[in-house]
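ARCHIVE CARD
Drawer: 12
Card no.: 0347
Subject: one protein chain, sequence and derived structure
Cross-reference: see card 0346
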Amino acid sequence: MIAVEDEASIRNLIESILVNRGYAVECYDTASGAWGRLLRKRPNLLILDVGLPDQSGLDLLRRVRALHGPQSFPVLIVSGRHSERDILLGYEAGADEYLTKPFSREELLAKCAVLIARSKPALETEAIDLSKGEPLFDRYDVRGTLGRGAFGVVYQARDLHQQGRLVALKVCDEEHARDPEHRLRFLRESYALASLDHPAIVSVVDFGLLDDHLYLAMDYVPGPTLARHVALSGPLSPGETLALLSSLAEALTHLDEAGLVHRDLKP
């Protein structure tokens, strides 16, 4: 991964976020320095500022696309220029995504994960080995298995980056992780969920594509499913039903306001 950013504080921030995530990153503060490297190497992702001291980042991008081809590798522009015209110019120059400053850690990681997942070829993915006792994705201490489904396994784990916070960690199976379309859809949906903040919606803690595995970590919610509760305790009272449906309606309203559709509600 190559990052081109002239402002030292932002360049160091980008490098720190990505290295802590497990990416290898080369950083440059000028277009000429990055160009010399890009002549010899195609990165899996180029992160590019527009306002560079020796040349416009857009001009550098046009040269890169002319050299390597329009689909050679993904490019993410990270810029303080945020007008509609600025963003359109970025896409016209050959950018795949545009992220405006200031940005959050989660936004940067999400954009990078989506772009890499879109461009990465389907590879054989090794099965996850829990016998070594090592943290999954260098972060999660798996405590047990919560369930298995058509798309993978859900583990109960402790987040070692957040003081042992208990999470439900969903890891997609190898077949779906190798499918570029599924990878992209999974990461886009995860990014959309991570932007939500509502007491009736389980919070997304982390997600990504690492070691060729797709994963999603959400807050762990203890307790039985509704079906299990009804089986053990009988039908809900009218008051309990109203409270449940009111909470559900509020959550769906929040999704609708964010422009999202659940797609998997069942009676």
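Annotation on reverse: Residues 224 and 232 are 10 Å apart (CA to CA). The chain has a mean pLDDT of 88.
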